[in-house]
Amino acid sequence: MNELPNCPACASTFTYDDGLQYVCPECGNEWSKTVDADATDDTPSVRDANGNPLFDGDSVTVIKDLKVKGSSLVVKVGTKVKSIRIVEGDHDIDCKVDGIGPMKLKSEFVKKA
């Protein structure tokens, strides 16, 4: 028997195959069959404060004053950070801030430049 995935919206087990997509008869949700292949992608999905996807090498702008832990320094609003690197973890951006040095930032406090 062919095993179909549960509905991602309501977790119903009554999904059916409708050609290029799956359909849930309980909630009416329709989703592509290629969603399963994208879920196994190894690259982390990191988005900025506005929901734009971030990738290695992008430039971002800080949207909030950020205190540097263990120091009296502050990363000011509007500071542009170039050549970011996406990493796993809570602080998902690895970068070098001019005047401060290497540090990690949370993606929720930056926007794509």
TrEMBL record:
Transmembrane segments: none annotated. InterPro entries: YjdM, YjdM_C, YjdM_N. Residues 3-32 form the Protein YjdM N-terminal domain. It holds the Pfam family YjdM. Residues 46-113 form the Protein YjdM C-terminal domain. It comes from the Bacteria. Gene3D superfamilies: 2.20.25.10, SH3 Domains (2.30.30.40). Belongs to the YjdM family. This is Alkylphosphonate utilization operon protein PhnA. It comes from Halomonas citrativorans.
